[in-house]
Structure formats: C-alpha cells, structure tokens
Amino acid sequence: MTNPFSSVRWKVLLAFFLIIGLSFLIMAGMLTNMLGRYLFEQRIRADRAGLEKWAVQAAPFLSAADTQTLTQTLAQAGNELSGRVLLLDGDGKVQLDTFREAHGRRLQYPEVVSILLSGQTADYGVHSLKTGREAQDSMLGFAAGDEWVSYSTAGIVHSSRVVGVLLLVSSVGEMMQNLYAVQDNLVLIFVVVAAVAILAGMIFSGVLTRPIVTLTGVIRQMSKGDFAARVPEKGSGELKHLASAFNSMSEKLQTLDQSRNEFVSNASHELKTPLATMKILIESLIYQPEMETQLRTEFLTDINAEINRLSAIVSDLLTLVQADAHTMRLDREKLSLAAIVKETAHRLEPIATQRGQTISLSLDDSGDMYADKSKLRQVVYNLLDNAVKYTQDGGKISLSVVRGGRDIILTVTDNGPGIRAESLPHVFDRFYRVDKARSRESGGTGLGLSIVRQIVTLHGGSIRAESEEGKGTSFIVELPLHKG
Asked: Which of 170, 195, 310, 349 could form a disulfide with 83 if both were Cys (CB 3.0 to 4.6 A apart)?
C-alpha cells in the first residue's frame, strides 16, 4: 500500500525547492545586475571624463582643419584611453581613425546620433559584435575573441556649436566575461546548495514525518479492533503532545471497549440467571401435572419473583442506556429534598423494622431546590434500600440533609460490615457486587448505584462512598441548589 505521507512529503519538498530555486534565481539576477551596473558606471565615468577632455582639446584643431595636429591628438588619446578613437564631423562622417580603416564613412550609431541630433554632450553604449548592425561593420577591426565593445561619445563644441563627435571604441569583453563567470558561479552555488538542501530535506522530512507515519500505523491497528496499540512518546514539542493526547484517547477507548464488553457479558449473565430459573420451574410444572397445589403455588410465586427481577434489570438497563446516550431529560420542579427523604424512609421502615433495624433522620435543612423529583426519589430510595439490605439485623441507619455553601448534602450512613478498600473504588461500576452471593439473594441487580451516580451527575452534583471494613459505610451526595 502506498504511503500517503510519502507522496505528500515529496510534494512539499518539490514546492519548497521550486520556491527556493525561483527566489535564488531572482536574487542571482539582481546581484548580477547590480554588479554589472556598478562596473559599467565605473567604466562610463572613466571613459567619459577622458574623452571629454580630449574633445575639448580637439575642438580648435577641428575648427582650424589642422589635420596633422588632430592626428597626433587622437593618437595620444587612443594611447591614454586604451581604445580606438575616431573623429567625426558634424554630418557623422569619419575624418580621422586611429586604426586608419574608416576614413570617409558615415556612422549612424545611437551614441553618435544622440550627440549630433538630440543635443546631448556625451553618450555611452555596449554592443555585441555577434548580432546587429555592428557584426557587419568592417570598420571595427577587433580580434575574433572580442564579442563585446563599448561606444563612448563626446561632442566637440566650438563657439557654442557642435562641430563634431569624438568616438571611443574599446573592448569590454573581459568585463562581460567576468559578469558571466559570476552568474555561472551563482548557478553552480545554487545547484550545490539545492543538492545539499534536497538531501537535508529528505533526512529532516523523514525525521519529522516518522512520528506521523507511526501514528497512522497505530490508527490502522485500532481500526482493526486493537485498542491496546500505543504511540511512542518521543522527542519534545507538539509531536510529543500529539502522541500523548492520542495515547490518552486510546486508553479511554480501550477502557470504554472493555467496559462495553463487561457490560454486555454481565447483562447477559444477569438476564440469563432468572430466565434459567424460570425455565426450570416452568418445565417442572409442565412435566408434573399432578403437582400438589401448595407446591404449584410456590413455583408460580418463584416465577413471579424472577419475572419481577427480570423486569427490574431491564428497567435499570434502559435507564443506563438513556443516560449513556444523553437522552435522559430532567423534569425540574420545585421540591424539598428533606420531604423526599421522609417519604422514602416511611416506605422502607416496615422492612427495616422486620429486621430489627432503626432508621434515624437528621434534617437540618429543608433542601428546597429545583430538580427532577422522581429521579431524586430514586436516588434516595436506592441508597436507603442498599443500606437496609446490607446492614445486619438490629443495625442502625441514619440519613441527614444539611446545607453546604451553595450545595445541599445528603448523607446515608449505616453501621453494617463496610466495604473492603480494594472494592470501594468500584462500588459505582455496573453489575459490581461487593458480596455477590448476598446481592443476588437480596434481589439486587448490581445497577442501583450506577443509576444513582448517573442521576446525580445529570443534576450537576457528585457522589462518593466512604467506608471502613467492619465499621459501616457512608454515601455522600452533593447537589447544587438550582433555583427555578
């Protein structure tokens, strides 16, 4: 299977190097242009200063038509300026040429025209001998290796009138070669830097994407049902935080999956037990038609009890399913928690009396609040019913309602056998029983405390259990005093 991160990595690298390459080429062009501009400015400044000086000296000799002196002057100028010097008259015709090759020719170079027609005093230009009109001009006479020349012109002014042009033709091939060499070096540097960057990018991108690739592999494992898979929490920064957050999520999913499996297993077991009992009893009735009336009544009573137990389990399961699906809604109304405690104690008092137990109430506050009356009645009933079931005969049970800041606190305490320390954290787990044998004998479903916690949490409250083995148990419920 193709790794999508590998494709993405190459696309990112390609885009990165395209951007870097374009930026580098632009920078190389700008640097070359800046260097060329600087070199040409230096060359222009030097050529122009020297040429204008000789143009001033040649002006009176040109006006006086002193050819001999002009020839000497141009020869000196050519030696000083290290180039070919031509003297043109006002019509652009060559009068003198230090190379003695262009006499009588009319030159229409832009640098000459700008002096004679545009009124400029000096001009400068660089030309390639490989292209254009200059390539066909036999008057240039440069060596085969000279590919670039510069034309520097200065006007010869006499009596405030341009009477001619002094043209300096010099080779700039070396300077252009240096510029090309700089450009080639920049391109070479770019290629080397790009190669190193590609290698480094591949290494670093591999390092950076490896945790993501690992994470993808673990996600695939989880999609196949392996919730125990974890990502190594290496390095530092955001990737480590991502790995930590993912592992935390995985752990919660694993716990949820285990809880779901345990829930299904326990629910199946709890439903199977009364069904199996009823099956045995009903089969006994079917295959023993001559059964005594008293025994038949006893069997039917047992079947009815199992049906009631099955109905209670299904009802509790539905309640928990609604809570898990967040479809359980609260029908809030103004009520008194103390009144609910009195009512529930009155309902369970006959059962407690049969076992010689005493129920005492300490209602320091009326517990007026805005809540779901039927659901809080279920909370109080489940807690008190548990206390009655699991407290020994002759035991004592107490209920109290007190104000604690903005909360109302309900406490149900008994002096029963208590709960072992290792079992205490699990008392609110579904189907968890501290004493499994006694729980089933008493008809408990193992869901009562789970339902209590769900209802209390739905009201925005909290519940906790405090117990010491052999010294009884206390359940403390704290509910916020919502006002209607």
From this structure: 170
Return the H-helix or E-strand segment holding 251. Answer: helix 238-287
Q: Between vectors from CA 385 to CA 381 and to CA 391, what angle results, nearest 5°?
A: 150
pLDDT of residue 132: 47
Write the CATH number for 62.
3.30.450.20
CA 434, 435, 436, 439 dihedral sign is negative
Q: Are 449 and 382 in contact (CB under 8 A)?
A: yes
Q: Tell me the two tokens of residue 67.
A: 């050819």
Distances (CA, A) of 133 to 88, 91, 101, 224, 326: 19, 20, 17, 78, 90
Does a structural domain hold residue 421? yes
Mean of the pLDDT values across residues 326-330? 72
Helix (H) or strand (E) holding 268, with range, is helix 238-287
The confidence score (pLDDT) of residue 130 equals 65
Would the pLDDT of 437 be above 50?
no
Mean pLDDT of 449-474: 88
- Pair 28, 171 in one domain: yes
Distances (CA, A) of 437 to 385, 432, 443, 444: 17, 12, 10, 10
Can you tell me the mean pLDDT for 173-180? 73
**Are residues 292 and 310 located together in one domain of the fold?**
yes
Estimate to the nearest angstrom the gap between the alpha carbon of 273 and the chain centroid. 52
Q: Are residues 349 and 296 in the same domain?
A: no
Whole-angstrom Cα distance, residue 153 to residue 47?
9
Q: Is residue 222 part of a domain?
A: no
8 A C-beta contact, residue 330 and residue 459: yes
Per the structure, the complete domain to which residue 421 belongs is given by 329-480
Residue 281's domain is classified under what CATH number?
Answer: 1.10.287.130
Chain mean position to CA 415: 56
Specify if 333 maps to a domain: yes
Domain C-terminal end among 149, 166, 183: 183
Burial (CB count <10 Å: 0-12, 13-18, 19+), residue 292: exposed
**pTM across the whole model:** 0.47
